[in-house]
Structures are given as structure tokens and as C-alpha cells.
Automatic annotation (TrEMBL):
This is Beta-ketoacyl synthase chain length factor. Pfam families: Ketoacyl-synt_2. Residues 33-200 form the Beta-ketoacyl synthase-like N-terminal domain. It comes from the Bacteria.
Length: 265
């Protein structure tokens, strides 16, 4: 199955947009790890801007960057949003409240804690009535969600917005689930090979041979190793360097094979 990558969004700590990330991946700039204090997306109504957590902002800003590079309207795109951890910060606050005598959980914390909250804010902000899927599969979230998005683009013969995101989990949960840095990546996938970048996906039986990591900067290597969304970095590295590549992503007892090709190769 072949799809085209028509647009890319990328956000995180010190990673404010795909152009910045490309320069870092090419060794033309250094990553400046900044506090993840993201602005509320202006697409959201005022009340939702106030309520949107940092993980919601991370996902929505990243997805919007991808949309801004194409003629497609955000409200016309079906979406696949994916996260391994969900909103760990919000969940930790709820757990702290529940374990505190007399502690109360605010309604805004509760509705932000569900796994599909970022997708819901996206639909509200862009008045979308398209299909929306939220996926989470621990460390294999990337292959599961990318395969789902590619299949939908291929079968429905229409563009699909894919966005994967994860951030550190504070408190006791974080000691059991290490996640380094906040990171998100979004693609707009279209059927066929009409774009500058084509991606061939094939589901293979067996574990497959692990793909050696590219020579990433130290902080980004930590994202690759300790952030499930960061597993997309080898693909982004190849795109930034305009190189064709083949990658293997573990998927249960099997694996997903990705073959990236540039149109001018």
C-alpha cells in the first residue's frame, strides 16, 4: 500500500515547527530545550482556549501546521490522533485530588482526561463533522496509527490527517512510565504517489530486524528512545536529508515495514 506525505507538522520542547526541526536534523541548528508553554490555538473558542491543556495544545498546533501547508480545509479532513500516554499531567492531578482528604476533581480536568480530548477540541475548533479516531497502543502506537491512517486514505481515496503526540508523565505514574520531552508529529496522507514523498507500508509477519537509529542530537535521541511519538524521528531524519530509506517498526509479534521514496530519486 502506497500513500503520499503531502505535509508535515512537528512541535515539542525547543521544536517549534517543521522548518526548525528540519534544520536541527540536518545539523544546521541546535535544539534549545524550552519550557513547553504553548499558546492556545486561535481556532478554539475562548472557553476552550482557556480549558485546553498543554497536551491538547501540542496536538492541535502540530496538526494545524500540517494543514497550513496544503489547500485542504481542516474541517474536511478525517483525523487519526494517536498518543501512548494520553494526558499524563491531567491524570496525575486527578489522582492527587482523589488521594487528598476532601479533594475534588474539577469538571474541566475530568473531560480533558479522556484519551480523545485533543481530537474533540480539534473537531470543536474547526467545526468538523468528519470521522475522528483516537488510538493508543503503548510503545506500538506509531505503527498502529500510521497503518490505520494510510489504510483510510487508500480505501477512501481521500486525504487523511494523522497526528501522534506524547509528553512526560509527572508524579508516581512517571516513575513507571518514563517519557522524555514533549513531542508531536503530523502528516497529511493522500492516496497514491502524486506527492514529492511516497511511503509504502507493508505488514510483515515475525519480529523483523531492528532499524539502527540515525545520528540524532542527544536530546532528540532521548526523544527517540523514551517517547513513543518520537519513534517517527528516523523517518523525519530521512525526509530532512532527502534520503530514501526503509524502516522497521515492531508491531506485537510482527512488524510494519516503511519504505520512503522521494519523487526526484
Amino acid at each position: 500500500m502506497i500513500v503520499a506525505i503531502e505535509a508535515i507538522g512537528c512541535w515539542g520542547e525547543g521544536l517549534h515547527g517543521w522548518p526548525t526541526v528540519q534544520n536541527i536534523l540536518r545539523g544546521e541548528a541546535s535544539l534549545c530545550a524550552e519550557s513547553l508553554k504553548l499558546p492556545a490555538p486561535t481556532s478554539l473558542p475562548i472557553n476552550e482556549q482557556r480549558r485546553a491543556s498543554q497536551i491538547i495544545r501540542l496536538a492541535v498546533l502540530c496538526a494545524e501546521e500540517a494543514c497550513q501547508q496544503t489547500p485542504y480545509k481542516p474541517e474536511d479532513l478525517p483525523i487519526i490522533f494517536a498518543s501512548s500516554n494520553g494526558d499524563g499531567f491531567i491524570i496525575n492531578r486527578i489522582l492527587e485530588s482523589l488521594t487528598t482528604p476532601g479533594g475534588a476533581v474539577s469538571p474541566s480536568l475530568f473531560h480533558n482526561s479522556v484519551h480523545n480530548a485533543p481530537a474533540g477540541y480539534w473537531m470543536i475548533g474547526h467545526h468538523s463533522h468528519q470521522s475522528a479516531v483516537s488510538l493508543g497502543l503503548h510503545d506500538e502506537t506509531l505503527p498502529a496509527a500510521l497503518l490505520k491512517a494510510a489504510i483510510e486514505a487508500h480505501i477512501e481515496q481521500r486525504p487523511v490527517l494523522f497526528c501522534i503526540y506524547d509528553a512526560p508523565v509527572p508524579g508516581s505514574l512517571g516513575t513507571a512510565r518514563r517519557t522524555d520531552h514533549a513531542f508531536s508529529c503530523a502528516f497529511i496522507l493522500t492516496p497514491g504517489t502524486n506527492g514529492a514523498l511516497s511511503l509504502t507500508l507493508s505488514f510483515q509477519e515475525g519480529k523483523g530486524e531492528a532499524t539502527p537509529p540515525p545520528p540524532l542530537p542527544d536530546v532528540m535521541m532521548n526523544i527517540l528512545r523514551h517517547n513513543p511519538a518520537g519513534h517517527v524521528l528516523p523517518l523525519l531524519y530521512a525526509i530532512a536529508h532527502k534520503r530514501d530509506c526503509t524502516l522497521t517498526l515492531p508491531y506485537g509479534e510482527n512488524h510494519l515495514r516503511l519504505a520512503l521514496a522521494h519523487a526526484n530519486s
